[in-house]
Amino acid sequence: MNCVPFSETPAKNYCTYCQDVINGLRIKCMECTDFDICLQCFTAGAEIGPHKNDHDYKFVVRT
Predict the structure, then answer these.
(1) Which helix (H) or strand (E) holds 40?
(2) Selected residue with higher pLDDT from 12 and 41
(3) Which burial class, exposed, middle or buried, applies to 4 when counting CB atoms under 10 A from its CB (0-12, 13-18, 19+)?
(4) In 10 A of CB 42, how many CB atoms?
(5) What is the pLDDT of residues 23-46, one digit of tens each?
(6) Is residue 15 part of a domain?
(7) What is the mean pLDDT of the chain?
(8) Number of domains into which the chain is organized
């Protein structure tokens, strides 16, 4: 059996809008598939593609 080393580094999340790495708090759209946005873009009301700023969302905190 071949073993693949486990990375100690947690996966990074990127803002779908600005593409920056999201550290700490991120906003996850509950209506769009695989859509995470940083707090700065969220507060600016960013919209991209089918995502609209009035969609339902949840706050996600990396622990």
Answers:
(1) helix 39-43
(2) 41
(3) exposed
(4) 19
(5) 989 999 999 999 999 999 999 999
(6) no
(7) 87
(8) 1
Distance of alpha carbon 34 from alpha carbon 41, whole angstroms: 16
Token digits for 5? 């080393």
Give the residue among 11, 32, 33, 25 at the shortest CA–CA distance from 60.
25
pLDDT interval class at 9 (50, 70, 90): low
Question: Does residue 11 form part of some domain?
Answer: no
Does a structural domain hold residue 32? yes
Question: What are φ and ψ of residue 55, in 5° steps?
Answer: -65, 155
Pairing of strands 36-38, 57-61: unpaired
Token pair for 24: 């700490």
- Does residue 56 fall inside a structural domain? yes
Q: How far is CA 37 from CA 4, 9, 10, 43, in A?
A: 31, 21, 18, 10
Predicted local confidence at residue 12, as pLDDT: 86
